[in-house]
Amino acid sequence: MQVVPIPILADNYAYLLIDPATGDAAAVDPADPGPVLSEVRARGLRLTHVLCTHHHGDHSGGNVAIADALPHVAVVGPQVDAARIPGLTHGVGHGDVVQVGSLTVRVLFVPCHTRGHVAFVAGEGAHEGPALFCGDTLFVAGCGRFFEGSAEQMVTALFDVLGALPPETRVYCGHEYAVANLTFAATVEPENQAIHRKLAWAVAQRAAGLPTVPSTLAEEREYNPFLRVHVPALARGDTPAACMARLRDAKNAFRPA
Ligand code: GBP
Ligand code: ZN
What we know:
Order of helices and strands: EEEHEHHEEEEEEEEHEHHEHHH
Number of strands: 14
CATH topology: Metallo-beta-lactamase, Chain A
CATH class: Alpha Beta
Radius of gyration: 18 Å
CATH architecture: 4-Layer Sandwich
Bound molecules: S-(N-hydroxy-N-bromophenylcarbamoyl)glutathione, zinc ion
């Protein structure tokens, strides 16, 4: 299994998920089809699927152009939001599987950012550990805004659903937000050295023109405040959902100095 991040639009990532055994590949959230199709051609791949995490245009806006360019491609996305996913051919829900060459991709239902948001986990059998494509649910050191859901739903998504994956799971998220997220994280947990280390690393990566993806779930648990709502320093006596709501409100209001 190989994953290639493709920076698109202002700060989005599309991804190619490649099965080296067959040359088959899937494109995750290819909202800008140009750079994604160029990469497919340059690598001599056969694109078999678009995997669309949610209806927002910066994730789903390339579906139709890709299907027009490559009519055999299956457009996979949340059945719950079928009417809002352009070009959808295969509506899926929690536990469904999609076969990309010899790779098995499993669908996880993680509503909150949008009411139909799904994540895709690939290569769960592979010895290098699975790859998680989590769209705008989990970011490096952050999470998505709760546009169509509640703090309770984000707790379920991050702890019960994504939290059930192994710690070595590689996290491929929908936006390059690491520096902004870690700057916020440092204000809510200033004593946490993992935040300061990751922030220095993220600033250096970005200065070198490099992405901050992937991280791992194990790493995220060290510095991501939204995965630390049960830690006393952040919970301050609140339930996980109440802490989740408070952190989300604070992040929405946060403007770096
Ligand atoms: C800021 O505040 O500095 N950069 C901005 C935040 C995902 S994109 C931009 C923002 O709000 N991004 C969204 C998010 O969830 N961010 C998490 C965070 O800021 O902590 N989107 O493009 C967003 O989902 C969108 C598209 C939203 C269509 C609504 C519709 Br309708
Ligand atoms: Zn979004």
